[in-house]
Amino acid sequence: MNLAIFDLDNTLIGGDSDYLWGKFLVEKELVDPILYERENQHFYDEYKAGTLDIYDFLEFSLAPLSKHSITTLNKLHDEFIQDKIEEIWLPKAEALLAQHRQNNDFLLIITATNHFVTAPIAKKLAVDDIIATMPEQINNQYTGKVLGIPCFQEGKVERLNLWLKEHDYSLDNSHFYSDSINDLPLLLKVSHPVAVDPDEKLEQYAKEQQWPIISLRD
């Protein structure tokens, strides 16, 4: 089996789940609306520009998880899927996953967005596994801190390498689909890099390298 690796946000779904989770928290009045909305947009703009300090962002984005029980958070996430994720669902993304599934590839999502937000989305997409930034838990309660290496930029390569040591796969004949210049370190590691509805910087680089550029949007 070959690896088919996918970024999640703005690749397999038509938006950014981390950003949308922040908006959802604001709308549910679970965070300070003015402060959180401003900071959420600030960090998202930095991400798109490729200048995000991942640790600063995680300190901000994981803090709300520490304020609620796992049971409450899971109920909120069910609402989040209905309110924010279903409307950015991409049938063409599901078709692409089905194509790789038919080829007997192993389907792996690798995402900078934290595991709490993304694992249910990955399950809905029926992929085989997910590598995501891990929020720390102690005694079944989120602490608001990150556990281990954030799955961002070079961190995606590091986390994937750790995953490969524990699984019987390699990057031989592998694919990686992404929209973001932040994922360039991993795009350079796979056999078949593919730019999906890419940002301006990635689109330019992909054209220079003659990489495939596809769209999964309607």
CATH architecture of the largest domain: 3-Layer(aba) Sandwich
CATH topology (level 3) name of the largest domain: Rossmann fold
- Strand order in the sheet with the most strands: 4-3-2-1-5-6-7
Strand content: 15-25%
CATH superfamily of the largest domain: HAD superfamily/HAD-like
Q: Detail the poorly predicted runs.
A: none
The CATH class designation of the largest domain is: Alpha Beta
- Give helix and strand order, one letter per element, not per position: EHHHHHEHEEHEHEHE
What form results from the Cα inertia axes?
Answer: globular
Mean pLDDT: 96
Q: Helical region count?
A: 9
Question: Which structural class best describes the helix and strand composition?
Answer: alpha/beta
The description of the largest β-sheet is: 7 strands, mixed
Task: Please describe what this structure looks like.
The protein has 218 residues and is of the alpha/beta class. The protein folds into 2 domains: 138 residues, HAD superfamily/HAD-like (Rossmann fold, 3-Layer(aba) Sandwich), CATH 3.40.50; 71 residues, SG protein - dephosphorylation function (de novo design (two linked rop proteins), Up-down Bundle), CATH 1.20.1440.100. The protein is built from 9 helices and 7 strands; from the N terminus they run βαααααβαββαβαβαβ. Helix 6 links the parallel strand 2 and strand 3. Helix 1 crosses helix 4. The longest helix is centred in the first third of the chain and has 17 residues. The protein is globular. The model has no long low-confidence stretch (mean pLDDT 96).
